[in-house]
């Protein structure tokens, strides 16, 4: 997009504001957009193209201000510049191209450096039986009013957050299996699902399946495994914790429902229950796991650092809860 003889600044401005190809214009990555682009912000108007070589300073400044607002949210550094005044010569075309490309890439990646986010209250919580062996599997979903709202939420840095806690002991006191569950809980930490990537805040144990490079924009209508953690340090090294995700339609931009499936599995076969009178001073439920609880929150984009408006979920639901 270098200047050539005969180019007019109004045509170039319209490219900066409205181009749907690389380097993408402001409206494409910050407005409604499509695919991995779009934040739902108000579109900048295009100007009438003619043979004239001038453009209103206020129009140009609106573009620069809008870009800076998005940069404040994405935490990208823009080229140093000041507002223009009537009669100024336009000399910053290359810098604007670079800055637009930087902002578009941040939006496409889900604004991973955005900090204008706030954690919701607990939206859903599903607990297991009081004590259990085998597995505890939960499906939790969030629904948006439209495919655009879903895109704009996740593109702005919004996330679904899953947390796991253990509310009770398998026996009268914490069992070895309880301790193994606790270690998996620590290893997962906050499990956050974003638009292009997912993360865990914890560390440790064995990451048997690493699908953290997947986010909502990668999901299909069947479950994608994001991670599988295997117990590595405790007594029960066959114990696993799995996180999966899917969407309702399979096309980012038309999907309205995201469903997360969490499975905590105790594959140990020695789950016999000690019966009264034959416990040999061993807790009757020594081979059991205490009550576990999968909870869902969202990390919601806010207008605190530049965005004029943000998308939000419409509802959430507990789809299934099975202790087997």
Describe the structure.
This protein has helices at 9-18, 26-30, 57-74, 93-108, 147-155, 176-188; strands at residues 117-119, 124-127, 131-132, 135-143, 159-166, 191-193, 198-200, 206-210, 224-230, 240-247, 257-265, 289-290, 292-301, 315-323. With 324 residues, it is α+β, with helices and mostly antiparallel strands. α3 packs parallel to α4. The chain folds into two domains: 9-108, no CATH class; 117-323, no CATH class. It contains six helices and 14 strands.
Largest sheet report: 6 strands, antiparallel
Helix content: 10-25%
Domain module tally? 2
- Per DSSP, the total helix count is 6
Structural class by secondary-structure content = alpha+beta
Total beta strands: 14
Q: Average pLDDT across residues? A: 90
- SS strand fraction: 25-35%
Uncertain spans: 1-6
Radius of gyration (CA) equals: 26 Å
- What string, H for helix and E for strand, traces the elements in order? HHHHEEEEHEHEEEEEEEEE
For the terminal residues, how far apart are their CA atoms?
61 Å
Based on Cα principal axes, name the global outline.
Answer: elongated
Please sum up the structure shown.
The chain has helices at residues 9-18, 26-30, 57-74, 93-108, 147-155, 176-188; strands at residues 117-119, 124-127, 131-132, 135-143, 159-166, 191-193, 198-200, 206-210, 224-230, 240-247, 257-265, 289-290, 292-301, 315-323. It is an alpha+beta fold. The protein has 2 domains: 9-108, no CATH class; 117-323, no CATH class.
